[in-house]
């Protein structure tokens, strides 16, 4: 039939404008003692978008962000979105060499940095793309030869910019954390980011009254997704400059937080706060675990504190979200990450790319509306991570080993690259870590392979003790070995003060393997 009406497209810019009008007086963004209503936030981000457009930023142009956690970071991210450009947030933990490589690989047309990071950028300015040297904005302060964000906003219109672009244009590029050693630019389009947010709304119980607390660095995938899904419904986004376990509990009580995502190492620290019972956490509806697998022992502690119906473990990767455990199934499926989210699917493949049976281990491959569009400038990596089905659809190889039970629930066994090959058998460090983490003397643990004369490789447990002055290495080693399979027994237990982590809490096993590569056991 002939289309009589021409309904408007639904995109993030349209949705944000809607909230700016209809939720004008409600809180949109809170950071410390700074609060912005939806009306204020809408105007501020419009001004940034219009200012970028006046500086000749066009849809699809990439803008580097070297920024810490502050309100201006969120404003800039949404301003870039409204301009139809592509945000490239840089992980502040990377080396200067990596930062240069990332900004150059993305061919950014402009750079925005917070005042406290200007010095770091200027130290490598001569090695950055010429476009960055000519187009740089400083946020949350001022700096010589940098355009202040406040001045950019002061000279810009506050109306929504008229920008038309394809939903398949890039919306952001996130560089991988480097746990594999070689960061890759992961590209998400406006279409895939909208899918991320829409798929997670029912999963995480997000609604118009949501008050979302973010304590994770805002260069990370889940932080960006958190921003988008909170603003999608017109909720309130609360953020902190850095993570502090007790401050997190204080903020939940003070701001009546409903949703909080944490990586497991953060959850462990929050659960370990002394006297946490004094805080009123009754507003919480969703305590979200993301970033890496949640060990059973810690999950039970979280169940006891918040209730099993409020703890939601999400499985996915920056390249694409896939599954989450339904809280109603959580008590009986405590080690599972659940079923695929709406519109998503996964399969488990053996080394010959054949599907495995129920209860058998296989690599997880995913197909989802939230999948990345690809790695930037890396056709080799795109091909290496692709599995094509008999319908010609390209699935993403996750590098994770999983298994499925008779109810089709997914269990993540380990990272394929972390697998230990001992005496011709596959050993999964996560199985050993789950056992070791239950010992009362153990705070954190990572299991890595070390050389063995007889078995080729043997497991080594690297442990952070709860109390270094009261830690018995031999007792912990014997306890682990009495509770794992014969081939899973650890060759030794090594005590360390801390484990090397990314800012999102992932253990850098690559660094541990390098540290202990000299060890050899019988």
Automatic annotation (TrEMBL):
Endpoints of the signal sequence: none
Record keywords, A-Z: Ligase
Pfam families, alphabetized: AMP-binding, AMP-binding_C
Record InterPro entries: AMP-bd_C, AMP-bd_C_sf, AMP-binding_CS, AMP-dep_synth/lig_dom, ANL_N_sf, ATP-dep_AMP-bd_enzyme
GO molecular function: acid-thiol ligase activity
UniProt-listed SUPFAM superfamilies: Acetyl-CoA synthetase-like
AMP-dependent synthetase/ligase domain boundaries: 23-376
Domain AMP-binding enzyme C-terminal per the UniProt entry, residue ranges: 432-506
Domain of life: Bacteria
Protein's name in the database: Acyl-CoA synthetase (AMP-forming)/AMP-acid ligase II
Source species of the chain: Desulforhopalus singaporensis
Lineage: Bacteria, Pseudomonadati, Thermodesulfobacteriota, Desulfobulbia, Desulfobulbales
